[in-house]
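queue> pop job 88
queue> type: inverse folding (structure -> sequence)
queue> payload:
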């Protein structure tokens, strides 16, 4: 049997796998690893959501196959959330699909709309599924800068004019994973106008819509008049309600695209477990003070990280949103690259981060730090980093140049 399956050959080795292997080995040896690598929320799911799950799961009728596109009550709850949060009205029957997390939604949308050789425009650096969902589906990726500004529009225009065949879709992700960049409504207006003029599908990942700081809630692309003519937006309950393992997300927007996604899903799954869907609806319809608490927690951790690492000698730019900081490698360590730096940090400082190269070649020179450790652990990590940087500086100064 051949090992070189066609679609597998198109996937490069997973960059994070090497760091994860070293992390597991270090823990097996007894090391106390402070893990900022994965955006895996460490907080408990709010109790009222858990209580609803426990209540519903007692009914054996809910143990049967569910609805692939989501039970009606959950789709109505998501539509109400969009109207409440963004002022956007959605038809829960035709413009909302529940997905097994936003990652699965993106991958299945790629299968629904991608023909072999189709060109898709994707920011770089970005969350891997934004590119590899289309690569697995037979598409071709062309990269754009991630900064939501005039240069992005200029790069988009060049890509549309010089790509053969003409691109079919553009992926947007703001607030961005990994860079934490946030887009304005004016930016979305410009992109929507461009997409309508050039018959371009827009796929917006809004997984971090509620993880923002300093009272600046990120907009939805669907707030733009006419955006539903060309756009679908993906969201997730993982971060907002600390429900990552529940695998609950949504795709909303253009009726034709939502219909295509629902049709693909109908062949692939029966939807999430019904008690999870009912509990998710309770989360969306219920008391939202838990979302404020989540936001306050990440803000405190962000401020702690920026301050503690700064005092340790590592300048961490303060992210305006998301649960991540996108951080340049310390200047003295830049030559080793993000993967080697991440490995050294893990092995010599017991601190795990995600190497920027894992999010695309333009992520080189950076690492992503997830705010998934408490403030005490963040300060401990900063002390470890301070020692690591001091030791590395001594090693550099003790290197004797080779005689010519």
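queue> result:
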């Amino acid at each position: 049997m051949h090992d070189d399956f066609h679609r597998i050959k198109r996937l490069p080795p997973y960059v994070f796998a090497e760091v994860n292997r070293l992390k597991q080995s270090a823990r097996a040896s007894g090391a106390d690893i402070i893990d900022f690598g994965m955006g895996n929320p460490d907080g408990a799911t709010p109790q009222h959501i858990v209580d609803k799950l426990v209540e519903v799961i007692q009914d054996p009728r809910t143990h049967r196959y569910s609805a692939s596109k989501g039970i009606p009550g959950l789709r109505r709850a998501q539509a109400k959330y969009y109207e409440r949060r963004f002022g956007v009205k959605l038809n829960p029957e035709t413009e909302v699909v529940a997905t097994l997390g936003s990652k699965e939604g993106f991958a299945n949308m790629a299968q629904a709309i991608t023909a072999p050789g189709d060109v898709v425009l994707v920011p770089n650096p970005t969350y891997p599924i934004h590119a590899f969902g289309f690569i697995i589906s037979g598409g071709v990726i062309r990269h754009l800068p991630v900064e939501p500004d005039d240069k992005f529009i200029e790069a988009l225009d060049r890509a549309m004019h010089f790509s053969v065949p003409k691109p079919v879709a553009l992926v947007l992700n703001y607030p961005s994973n990994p860079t934490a960049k946030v887009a304005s409504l004016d930016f979305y207006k410009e992109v929507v106008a461009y997409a309508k003029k050039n018959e371009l599908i827009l796929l917006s990942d809004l997984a971090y819509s509620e993880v923002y700081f300093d009272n600046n809630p990120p907009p939805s692309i669907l707030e733009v008049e006419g955006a539903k003519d060309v756009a679908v937006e993906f969201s997730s309950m993982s971060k907002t309600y600390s429900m990552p393992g529940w695998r609950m997300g949504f795709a909303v927007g253009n009726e034709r695209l939502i219909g295509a996604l629902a049709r693909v899903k109908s062949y692939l799954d029966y939807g999430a477990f019904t008690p999870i869907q009912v509990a998710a609806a309770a989360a969306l319809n219920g008391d939202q003070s838990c979302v404020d608490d989540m936001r306050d927690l990440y803000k405190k951790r962000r401020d702690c990280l920026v301050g503690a690492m700064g005092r340790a000698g590592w300048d961490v730019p303060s992210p305006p949103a998301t649960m991540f900081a996108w951080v340049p490698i310390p200047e003295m360590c830049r030559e080793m690259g993000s993967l080697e730096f991440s490995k050294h940090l893990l092995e010599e400082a017991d601190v795990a981060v995600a190497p920027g190269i894992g999010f695309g070649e333009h992520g080189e020179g950076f690492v992503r730090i997830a705010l998934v450790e408490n403030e005490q652990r963040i300060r401990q990590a900063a002390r470890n980093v301070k020692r690591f940087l001091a030791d590395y500086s001594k090693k550099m100064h003790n290197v004797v140049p080779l005689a010519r």
